[in-house]
Task: structure prediction
Amino acid sequence: MDIGNFIVNPVTLALIVLGVVEFIKKFGITGNKLMLIAMSVGIAFGLIYKARDLYLPAQPYIDVAFFGIAVGLGASGIYSFVTDRFPPTTKATLKYTKVTTRTNPGDKKVQ
Result:
């Protein structure tokens, strides 16, 4: 990953927010607390993203910060997020049972 090719846009920002929330989940936070934290993270990152456009001298620093967060998330286990939601495909196995039938109670078994 190269900072020169890293572009901060709404899609990148959404993925970063998603990664940060997943990272926070690993600390055992769930329910309404997690929802409030997710909203707060989204608002904070959204405001920083808009400040990037409004205050041009800060743009390289904000890009570096988002780049660092993205790389940190990659190192901290964003892989587990993908594997939890999209598990690897497994081979289907076919199981069968042997069925034995009798036509009359006194007849021999037919297989």
